[in-house]
Write a structure and sequence with these properties.
mainly alpha, 46% helix
Length: 179
Amino acid sequence: DAATQAIQNAIAGLTEPADKSALQELVDSTAELNEETYTADSWAALQAALADANGILDDPNAAQEDVDSALPVLQAAIDALAERGSDPPSEPSVPSDPSDPGSGDPSVPGSSSDPADPSDPGQSVPTSPGTSQPVASGGTGGNPYTADFTPLTALLILFAAAALAVPVLLLKGSKKRPE
């Protein structure tokens, strides 16, 4: 009876071997790529994805899920290969100092993160009639960076009202009970 159960467990544990053909084809397609053509970072990312893919290909017990998850990773690494000397994809300018909204890369037109910076040629800033002052884009007090806290204020008032209502309701409930 124990031997039969062991055999049944072994049979239940058998799985169909993973189909690795698509992964093998993708790995094989990288053989013609030349390291000297691509940037060091993009080549290193490809090599890491290839190492993972080859590990799965070499594993006789690899699950189909492993194969299926390695395919898009390797394809993304291939697609992300950047040729040496080519311009990298442009990234949005991020202020180096979050407290200073104008601290983007000043050498790049339009990179200033200050929408009211009239010296930025990438911006078109509306001005008040008869002045060179920028028009406030919303909020209060003419500061375009001022947020509207009306919803937050309403929520705080609602919580305060609920906090006051709970003791009142508890007091009313205790008066109705006869002692």
